Amino acid sequence: MILEMKVPSPGESIKEVEIATWLVKDGDYVEKDQAIAEVDSDKATLELPAEASGIISLKAEEGDTVAVGAIVCHIDTDAAKPSGSAPVAEVKKEEAKVVEVKKEEVKVAAPVAPTSYASGTPSPAARKILDEKNIQPSDIVGTGKDGRITKDDAINAVPSMGTPTGGNRGSERTKLSMLRRKVSERLVAAKNDTAMLTTFNEVNMTPINTLRNEYKDAFKAKHGGLGLGYMSFFTKAVTRALQLYPDVNSMMDGDYKIAYDFCDISIAVSGPKGLMVPVVRNAENLTFRGIEADIKRLALRARDGQITVDDMTGGTFTITNGGVFGSMLSTPIINPPQSGILGMHNIIERPIAVNGKVEIHPMMYVALSYDHRIIDGRESVGFLVAVKEALENPVELLCDGNPKKAFEL
Questions:
Q1: 8 A C-beta contact, residue 367 and residue 329
Q2: DSSP string, 152-182
Q3: Among 139, 304, 376, 400, which one carries the catalytic annotation?
Q4: Given 33, 64, 131, 372, the catalytic residue
Q5: Where are the beta strands (DSSP E) in 178-312?
Q6: What CA–CA distance (Å, rounded) separates 307 from 298?
Q7: I need a labelling partner for 312 at 20 to 30 A (CA). Which of 1, 22, 46, 186 fits?
Q8: C-alpha dist (Å) from residue 190 to 36, 183, 335, 336
């Protein structure tokens, strides 16, 4: 019986996928539920499992874009499983034959033609000089008989400033994955279709560092190895600010504004297939432990290529942390159809004025990019100031005055 395997639907809005990698070869025997291919949609990379055991016949190439429901392979379910590979002795015998053929080929090779120094070919002495100067013979004109490059020609040759000499100059053309192409389209659309502006501020990270240093060990021991990272503080600060400035937690839909009474926070993470933005649902109701656990779960799924469309669907606001890569300052691009994105950056000790005195503190620049069609300057600046206030006073504004209770210790 020949089983026709079709592309399953990865999600309601996805109409086509791309064959990223075949994990088996044409004619291989596959077991039921064995992963036979990785397919890219515009939202995620998914594995395609075999629906039955048998000999597989591939009907699509790597890089092909195929519609959901299209046939990508046949599986002959009546085919018997191969007993095994050929004996080692036979393999070695075949290898020996190959070696013998190659030796025969060497014996009958055509004789090497005698060297000619005409038509721009350098003499041995000239060749040595040109090699030392890293000059190609084709870059100079010989003055000897029939265009021969003489020793004097080589001595007088000067490297051309406009002609690359030496070093690798290769290039490689590779097709972007469907996920990367979709990300590119969305980023360009965000620049072209929104009135995007960015406002900046800076945060003194001393209060958070003090709080983390005091409680991170107890937090880790209490919650099964979970770390008390910066992201949970920023997520709590963002959800608080979104509730104070709800326009930042809304989006455009034609001539209408959609406002949300919940905070689904998209967290930008770097995965093997590129940038992904899984969503922490109802982050406004989560504790520090809940946020850290959800972020860790989503980050591991992204790293292992197990992220799903549902994990990345939705989101009312995005946080991205370029600081982990060393970024000092940036203007993050809005993740459409959202209206705002907060960019975190690296923490650097800088001198600042505190109560009329110069002190050195760990400082971070933060940036809010927002859609000016729906968010005015007052809301955008007020939102970022509210984030700053919460981060610089985490005990009162993020922990309700009781860190032990907030960290569930």
A1: yes
A2: HHHHH----TTS--SS-------PPPHHHHH
A3: 376
A4: 372
A5: 196-204, 250-253, 256-259, 265-267, 269-271, 274-276, 279-280
A6: 7
A7: 22
A8: 36, 10, 7, 6
Can you tell me whether residue 259 is helix, strand or coil? strand
Q: Could you identify the residue written with the tokens 């002959």?
A: 76
CB-based contacts of 370, cutoff 8 Å, min separation 6: 196, 197, 198, 199, 248, 334, 339, 340, 341, 380
| Residues 116-155: tens digit of each pLDDT | 445 567 777 778 888 888 888 887 788 877 777 887 888 8
CA distance 17 to 59: 15
> If we measure between CA atoms, which residue out of 329, 73, 337, 69 comes closest to residue 190?
337
pLDDT digits (tens, 9 = 90+) for 251-277: 999 899 999 999 999 998 877 767 788
pTM: 0.67
What does the block give as tokens for 126? 């000239």
Whether the Cβ atoms of residue 301 and residue 272 lie closer than 8 Å to each other: no
**pLDDT per position as a tens digit, 308-318:** 878 888 899 99
Summary mean pLDDT of the chain: 85
pLDDT of residue 162: 58
User: Quick one: tokens of 186?
Assistant: 């969305």
User: E strands along 242-309, which residues?
Assistant: 250-253, 256-259, 265-267, 269-271, 274-276, 279-280
Tens digits of residue pLDDT in 43-99: 677 788 999 999 999 999 888 888 888 999 999 999 888 876 444 444 444 444 444
Residues 6-25 have pLDDT tens digits of 988 877 667 888 888 899 99
Q: Is 372 annotated in the active site?
A: yes
Residue ranges and CATH numbers for the domains of the chain are 2-76 (2.40.50.100), 124-156 (4.10.320.10), 197-406 (3.30.559.10)
Burial of residue 203, with CB atoms counted within 10 A of its CB: 0-12 exposed, 13-18 middle, 19 or more buried: buried
Q: Where are the beta strands (DSSP E) in 244-380?
A: 250-253, 256-259, 265-267, 269-271, 274-276, 279-280, 317-321, 340-344, 347-354, 357-371
- Per-residue confidence (pLDDT) for residue 92, from 0 to 100: 43
